[in-house]
Amino acid sequence: MSKKTxxxxxQETKRKLFQERxxxxxxxxxxxxxxxxxxxxxRDFISQVKTERECADFILTRxxxxxxxxxxxxxxxxxxxxxxxxxKALALAVRGEEGPRGLKIIASHIDSPxxxxxxxxxxxxxxxAYLKTHYYGGIxxxxxxxxxxxxxxxxxxADGRRVDFVLGEEGPVFCINDLLPHLARxxxxxxxxxxxxxxxxxxxxxxxxxxxxxxxxxxxxxxGVLKILSDRFGLxxxxxxxxxxxxxxxxxxRDVGLDGAFVGGYGQDDRICAFTSLTALLEARRLPETxxxxxxxxxxxxxxxxxxxxxxxxxxxxxxxxxxxGERALExxxxxxxxxxxxxxxxxVTAGMDPDWPEVHEKRxxxxxxxxxxxxxxxxxxxxxxxxxxxxxxxxxxxxVLNRAGVTWQAVDFGKVDEGGGGxxxxxxxxxGLDIVDMGPPLLSMHSPFEICHKVDLFETHRAYRAFLEAE
Length: 472
What we know:
The protein has 472 residues and is α/β, with parallel strands linked by helices. The chain is built from twelve helices and 23 strands. The strands form five sheets. It has a nine-stranded mixed beta sheet with strand order 1-2-3-14-4-15-21-17-19, with helices on both faces. A seven-stranded antiparallel beta sheet has the order 8-7-11-5-6-10-9.
């Protein structure tokens, strides 16, 4: 064996050869005010925006304020464009210095786990009015019981008029009742956690005052709440059939921790990536390549439907761009060729390591809170089923981009190999032929009504997306 090296040489060699995973805060102390100011804007955003429609409206408004035009209003000279998809998904496009010969895409999703109303939701039982629900996405049902809830809705009336309403953010809230522990031993306590609360018991307490009528009249409480809906919004019971009404946690997002290091609130999966990608684009100084931000719906239930990643919305947007900017005659292969020259980010969150649950995490590879934006070369589950995987060349290019920009980042996996896993829109976009990788911040309590992000990870995600958009 060779003789011992000096301590200085050891430290220098270690610094050169070891992978550094620094605390993001140690690299951002001179930006403390900027980090917290950015987090305040984000906290206000997720307090205000709780459905995919509301998120799409917010992005549309911000984009128009920044000089974007709707595609329907555009001319060949328009370089900042908005494409909408049924009010639930949209895309922003900015022409780069090279035109659309090169393309960068950041795709996030703006739907979140929640409760939806059934087509015939309103009923009365034991002089109480309730709403029947059907949960949307992967939730732990018990987390939605005995907590304040709000109702955000869009209704299309029989005459075609649209009615938007929000109930429960101010004034009375709503709730789903839980069973008191004194009577829950057999009904809940002796069952598996996944079976203790049946989906059919997620019924929202909606009202309790009877409509003034003679004693013995039927369904007086149901009539009472329908009368209120009629007086306030002009609604009748049949209007529930042509409505998108969602039950979400009531109240604003909050700073979390004595030092305010975290933001807690509903819907951070995945509106945190929608917000950070939007601000990255609006603040970018230069765009060498044409940029497309996709804000997609229905990721939480498999990306199916005409507003999800499996739809042909992306193809429609690109064909419209090429036609507007007169790049080539639109043969069937022109969009495909552009997609094969595209670099993309699937902007989605990942699971942050929780020290109380080390048995499900792989500590050498899972994301740590406060260590910056997380890059997932692949997702899926088991033997990498249900995912795309970024190639080494693309990972190498992205690594250079982030390092040059001084972004704090971490390469991560998603739990132990046999514990489960997750999926994103990456595999559906990879099908189109582009290079893509998952990148976003880690969250604690993901898919719960009160998810937690670290403000450092939030800020570094914004910086990472901006570096990606500005890179050659």
